[in-house]
Amino acid sequence: MKFNKYVSSSRRKNRRRHFNAPSHIRREIMGVALSKQLCREYGVPRLTLPIRRDDVVKVITGKFKDETPAKVIRVHRKKYRLFIDNIQREKANGAQVKVPIAYSNVVITKLKLDGYRKNLIKKKVQRKLRARKRLGLDPSGTKQIKKSPKKDTQQDQDLD
């Protein structure tokens, strides 16, 4: 279902916008999910934030998913890739090189917080909680069940 008539739903146009996006738009596109523990800490079921250099991430899919969480060394926005501290391979000549990982294959386990980032998280959490309340969902992620008072029809009627 199309929500905005001014935005195309054409696959070709969307791919063009994605791969020709400027850096400030790519930052938003490269939003990475927070781990369940961090989400619980902030009191929301799910939250994504733009990735940055000193965040600690864990790879959840692919060849390197068994590695321990490590720091992001570089965010390569032009190629939509991350370089992580302990993820590397050996070249034919024996040199070690960092392996690029797609941002969609990681979760953030520890944030590098500064003033701007704290405000961003606070704003996003408030917005998310407000929206969940408006939709009738409680903050923990389960749907509220509204109990209506049931009247027993047989007790109200006089059968004599």
Structure description:
With 160 residues, the chain is an alpha+beta fold. It has one domain (11-135): SH3 type barrels (Roll). Helix content is 29%, strand content 24%. The protein has helices at 11-19, 23-29, 36-42, 115-134, 153-156; strands spanning 31-33, 48-50, 56-59, 70-76, 81-90, 96-102, 106-110. The strands form two sheets. The chain has a five-stranded antiparallel β-sheet, with no helix packed on it. The longest helix has 20 residues, at 115-134. The model has no long low-confidence stretch (mean pLDDT 89).
What is shown here, in short?
By secondary structure, the protein is an alpha+beta fold.
Major beta-sheet overview: 5 strands, antiparallel
Overall tally of domains: 1
End-to-end separation in angstroms reads 57 Å
State the low-pLDDT regions, or none.
none
Query: What structural class is derived from the secondary structure elements?
Result: alpha+beta
| CATH architect. name | Roll
Number of strands: 7
- Number of separate helices: 5
Order of helices and strands, N to C? HHEHEEEEEEHH
CATH uppermost class: Mainly Beta
- Sheet with most strands: strand arrangement: 6-5-4-3-7
Helical content (DSSP H or I, runs of 4+): 25-40%
Average pLDDT rating: 89
Radius of gyration: 23 Å
